[in-house]
Amino acid sequence: xxxxxxxxxxxxxxxxxxxxxxxxxxxxxxxxxxxxxxxxxxxxxxxxxxxxxxxxxxxxxxxxxxxxxxxxxxxxxxxxxxxxxxxxxxxxxxxxxxxxxxxxxxxxxxxxxxxxxxxxxxxxxxxxxxxxxxxxxxxxxxxxxxxxxxxxxxxxxxxxxxxxxxxxxxxxxxxxxxxxxxxxxxxxxxxxxxxxxxxxxxxxxxxxxxxxxxxxxxxxxxxxxxxxxxxxxxxxxxxxxxxxxxxxxxxxxxxxxxxxxxxxxxxxxxxxxxxxxxxxxxxxxxxxxxxxxxxxxxxxxxxxxxxxxxxxxxxxxxxxxxxxxxxxxxxxxxxxxxxxxxxxxxxxxxxxxxxxxxxxxxxxxxxxxxxxxxxxxxxxxxxxxxxxxxxxxxxxxxxxxxxxxxxxxxxxxxxxxxxxxxxxxxxxxxxxxxxxxxxxxxxxxxxxxx
Length: 450
Fold this sequence. Notes:
Order of helices and strands: HEEHHEEHHHHHEHEEHEEH
Shape: rod-shaped
Helix content: 55-70%
């Protein structure tokens, strides 16, 4: 549940509670006021009617009885006054005109809430006598309906105002909270940029004090993270370059020392084999030495190829990659590999060619070990200021959330990001794997000056 909705629900519940308590308090006060006013009016009316009845009781002749003219008391809304003759027939009443003015009848639940049940009101009766003879009876019944109607009208107005107030408060809270939380989208966007690897993402200075502190801390954290990552990349590149230099020296030593020694051994053993005066047993031993020397030479050649491909330094990246793919194809004849390697791969500096070569070498090694792919495609193209490498296979793939945690992909990513490039891996179980690399082209002078 969002914060805006939660606050609106809390305010709504609070306003409903306040309205309910206010309505209960208003009804209780109105009930007391109506009862007091009705009882006061009833006492006054009974006092006047008692005086009138006393006057009639002093008459000696019933013919002198004049009408009570109760219809003229129609404005007396709180009482219903009725005059019945000695036969019980209604002769006069003030209720006819009063009912005509009664328009807004409150609902029953409101009348019940007011507690003005008609059975609670006690009728007052006054016998009208003339010369000791009962000629009729006056019945006075309290009638609070008009007061209740007035209270109901006031209550309706209050409910309308409360509803408008409730609506306006909720709208204002919704707008105010939405306006205050609008920078949250900016914060989330900056966090997403960091997640995607954009370490230059920063937050603006927010006007709200609390968010301004968050912005300051976020920018400080992003700056430190960017500095730390750049330092790690530089360190990784230094390690990689030191490793490549060490490989180069080791390859040169293997080629110059061991390679030449093996060549000499092979030549001497071959000369012994070809000699006519040599003992047959010696020739047999020399032939074994020739076989072992050739086998060791092949091993040393493979070691040199892994340590530092001689073709990369002498013939360039295009031929080195073609030779690497050819050797891989010979070792894995069950898989087909399609290559599209551009020929204009000169002036890439010292480290970009070896980085591309190592990436392809590592990718082909992973495909042969894990992918079980039947088809592989390799493309290396130079587009503008970037060099692009794409390697696809139709192997078993893997879940990106459970990507391998070995040094293969991590080392590839370090090599690429150390040169300011990007590496993207896409894979899914049963759908193969795609590795896409983009490296900005840096010339030899710029790279050497770092």
